Amino acid sequence: MRERWAAGQLTADHALELMRESYRNYIRRQTPRFRALFDHLTGDHAPLVIHCTAGKDRTGVACALVLVALDVDDDIIMEDYLLTNQYFRRDAAAHPELPRDVLEAIGTVQASFLAAALDTIRQDYGDLEAYLRDGLGVDGAAREALKQRYLTG
Q1: Distance of CA 139 to the CA centre of its chain
Q2: Long-range contacts: 117-121, Cβ < 8 Å, 24+?
Q3: Active site residues
């Protein structure tokens, strides 16, 4: 698909699948970075800023994982993730060669993107609990400490 982009043949459907594949790869390739984030959170290295190139994709997955560790309801996690679309817009001038529908696909977040990451976790680790524990080094005690530190009420 990246070849289609380079050749100027990228459609919105291709772009959406490219984004979903990117999210799958965040789990497969970025877990050490997500683990480092949790090392900071469990080590109480606050305040902490989470960001990536656009501030929506890897950042969105990272924030969703934090919310998973805090036992936030799945619907709330998705709602929080999708808030990006209210507060972020990719500058169309940055990629004038891309059609508007392709820019929309890569410049927003969609539920299917985060779902692709979470499905990859389930496929590769069995469930989210196992990923937190085995992939990110966040066991039950660490989760309780995170809840004490970051939840109120």
Answers
A1: 21
A2: 117/23, 117/24, 117/26, 117/27, 117/61, 117/64, 118/64, 119/24, 120/23, 120/24, 120/27, 120/28, 121/27
A3: 52
Contact criterion met (CB below 8 Å) for 136 and 34? yes
Mean pLDDT of 108-137: 98
Task: Tally Cβ neighbours within 10 Å of residue 32.
Answer: 9
Cα gap 118→62, rounded to integer Å: 11
Task: Quote the mean pLDDT of the chain.
Answer: 91
Digit-coded pLDDT (tens) for 23-50: 999 999 999 999 999 999 999 777 888 8
In order of start, what are the domains of the chain with their CATH numbers? 7-150 (3.90.190.10)
Which stretches of the chain are DSSP H helices? 2-6, 12-42, 58-69, 74-82, 84-87, 100-107, 111-125, 128-130, 140-150
The most confident of the ranges 9-18, 49-58, 99-108, 116-125 is 116-125
This model's pTM is above 0.85: yes
